[in-house]
């Protein structure tokens, strides 16, 4: 607190009054500020009170508000995680109970009523899982993913369809931590599994190929390179290049010692030469830290390599914009016939007659009406088809052409291993003749599959059988109207028939003979005898619900081999669910740790903020008392000097 000096007798009365009035104004303003500090409890109420402290306080307040937001987020996340944990616990308990039901249902002998009771118990378990998965909390389905507009699981006829997403809901609980607060049914129940993946479609290099897609998506970062024809270096700035075409144009604009460069785009990369074709020396090197020439495989710093300089196989990744005409190394593939997707007893045709790009194929699959979802894997570039329906068999086959095979999406091919038949349970052989085929001329073919490894091997054994000659020869092939093996011959005096001797189940495993039958007879089609087999390798989604739905059917039918096949999968499903619940528990623990740290930080920030702007009440009261005394003294002096009494005016 500052006070003006006391006036002396040698000072004029006017000046003394002026000084005292100034002192009164100063004390009055100071008292007003002190009153404000007492009422607000803060020493700094405006920036002008203490600019340095005010700036620090603003920063501390921003940090404090951010911490408060993170605490609110943490509380919200805790609610989601608690509900998620409850749902996970429900799933765990349901699966544990289901295992007991399965063990009981696998016992022999059981009456029909007992089997029905166990099957009904599994049906209730499935309903519990669906109800748990469709649990809604604050407008979000717990197992539906982050973008959910409807319950993720729904019953349709005798199967269950998943319509959720794989995106997870998350919450920002600290500056650098986005915590997943939910799980989806794919993680906990295994729904939406991939049922088919395409081949490497082997995209060719074109002018439109992005540099970022080269080397399977590893990409090439354009930089500055330099080139020389033997007489000094010329820098070439490629940093603006985005595509192979940009690279080609930039290099074609370069002339070395008056000789123009000529770049040719091939199906696998680029080739660099002189436009006049007269040969010579061409040195290319990277500049500084750049790696463009080296990555492209055109680096030739000493000019030792002969012309033309040919790049590596740049192997671009498949993206949705790749033209089908540019796949298969540039030869293209004809998928215009489309293909079929079988889902249980329903069949859907994927129309690819207008498809030009990989994206067109994906869109056509998703618009087919089948419960599938097609996408392009960002890493492998493969088309992946996920089955969204559990409890049914899937099959992807031809529609009169070979589109499914060309795309690599056919689920049953010539390369299918015989060990995979009958859902991996195998088949019985006789050690001799496993199949008998009666030709239309009455002669018999005896087929032994011992030593065969694939469907293609069996087809070859039929076609190349020593007795399978002449006009009535039987032609074995894969069906072009779906999946399965087809046998065909011209009509004759006898019926084309395929059978399996006692002790063999090869015909059933190949889909050529119905279960429980010993043979299949051909039908006549325009003068040809034709046997069309069923799909020998139907695909299951393999999810928890899929396994339970199949077990329900198997227990009701008393199918012990099927129960034996599926029962071990339940252990895996339970382990998957337990692992998911453990992951949720780990998130809860991490959340609690972060929340505790945030609370401690918030307390520390409050303390620092208090040190900067809060008033010290003892100091404020002491200063206010001094100001009041000074103000009172000033008023008394002013009254004496001014002589403001009635006698002075008489």
Please tell me about this protein's structure.
The protein is an alpha+beta fold and 650 residues long. It has 13 helices and 28 strands. The strands form nine sheets. It has a four-stranded antiparallel sheet. Helix 1 packs antiparallel against helix 13 (617-642) and helix 11 (544-557) runs antiparallel to helix 12 (560-613). The longest helix has 55 residues, at 51-105. The chain is flat, with a radius of gyration of 42 Å. The two termini are 41 Å apart.
Observed structural traits:
four-stranded antiparallel beta sheet; 650 residues; 38% helix; 13 helices; alpha+beta; disordered N terminus; flat
Distance between the termini: 41 Å
- Tally the helices: 13
The fraction of residues in strands falls at 15-25%
Spatial strand sequence of the major β-sheet: 10-11-12-14
Helix content: 25-40%
Major sheet details: 4 strands, antiparallel
* Count of extended strands: 28
Round the mean pLDDT to the nearest integer and report it: 88
* C-alpha-based Rg, rounded: 42 Å
Principal-axis shape equals flat
Q: Structural class, from secondary structure content? A: alpha+beta
Unreliable residue runs? 1-5
